[in-house]
Design brief:
Layout: H1 3-27, H2 32-61, H3 71-92, H4 96-108, H5 111-121, H6 124-138, H7 145-154
Helix pairs in contact: 1-2, 1-3, 1-5, 2-6, 2-7, 3-4
Length: 155
């Protein structure tokens, strides 16, 4: 797979992950603290998807596809399968515990690592944009959603 293809697939996966979080927030509206967490996690994934879409657009505008990175195909296929399973679990979640288990599994999925790896493959401007996005997300008064997820679930 070429970098442009990988970026496109990762953007789609991040958008799907955000939809899972949004769905959990809608499904369990009565638990305001968890709903806030899921919305925050959804926003983070939507931001990643947007950054990746912009990077893909940059590749397309330059009529480039980037380096050929065959090792990503298996990682993306595995992540896609895992995400399909978690989407199904989220849609049928009847209890808050099940919904929280889905959220934890999403956070433990390889998507974040894949996103970080892509940042290293991208253009300098992509790295700069990504660093700014991450800094803005980290500058919130609350710790980052992923870092605080385990603490919040235990509450």
């Amino acid at each position: 797979m070429y970098v442009a293809e990988i970026i496109e697939r990762c953007s789609e996966l991040a958008a799907r992950t955000a939809r899972v979080y949004r769905g959990l927030a809608e499904r369990f509206q009565g638990d305001h603290e968890r709903v806030g967490l899921w919305r925050e996690l959804a926003l983070e994934e939507e931001t990643h998807a947007d950054v990746l879409r912009r990077e893909l657009q940059s590749f397309q505008e330059q009529d480039q596809s980037g380096s050929y990175l065959p090792e990503y195909a298996d990682r993306l296929a595995q992540l896609d399968t895992e995400l399909h399973q978690l989407e199904d679990r989220a849609q049928t979640a009847q209890t808050l515990d099940t919904a929280l288990a889905v959220a934890v599994a999403l956070e433990q999925a390889d998507l974040e690592d894949l996103y970080d790896d892509l940042v290293l493959q991208g253009e300098q401007s992509f790295k700069l944009i990504s660093e700014r996005v991450e800094a803005a997300l980290a500058a919130k008064p609350e710790p980052s959603p992923a870092a605080g997820l385990a603490r919040r679930i235990r509450q």
